[in-house]
Write a structure and sequence with these properties.
- The protein has a single domain, classed as 3-Layer(aba) Sandwich (Aminopeptidase), CATH 3.40.630.30.
- A four-stranded antiparallel beta sheet has the order 1-2-3-4, with helices on both faces.
- By secondary structure, it is α+β, with helices and mostly antiparallel strands.
- Keywords: Transferase.
- It comes from Cytobacillus solani.
- InterPro entries: Acyl_CoA_acyltransferase, GNAT_dom, MshD_Acetyltransferase.
Length: 149
Amino acid sequence: MKQNNIKIIKYIPKYAKQTVEMWRECKELAIGQKETHSFDNHLYFLNHILTDHFQVDLALIDEKVVGMIAYNDREINQLYIHIEFQGIGIGQTLLDRVKAQSSGRLTLYTFEVNEKAQRFYEKHGFEMIGRGYENEENLPDIQYEWSAK
């Protein structure tokens, strides 16, 4: 799959179901536990909470949601790439766009069990700045920071 087939758009609700399906599947695989919220609650969160507090962009290939990122100029709140489309540069494309629009410094959290995400962020210039348990999954997490040099 060539990366030039990828279209990045601002989130629109017609992609809500696909986005949540992809998000849940990726997260469950990454952390090894089922999503605690119902699908409808997750849709509500995306459409009424996340999008009120963060810019949400989607990566599409032929109208299929293959990635999503939620961010502002200081923080990345969510970043998920469809399992079948990982490792081809979609995450880097989304991350580079957010870095370019940032204040020059970004923070994010990832689960300690998600070693794949840790490698990804470290490869792209993020450094660990803390650890904690401040998530509803009650899993240890790692806080990362990136700053423009």
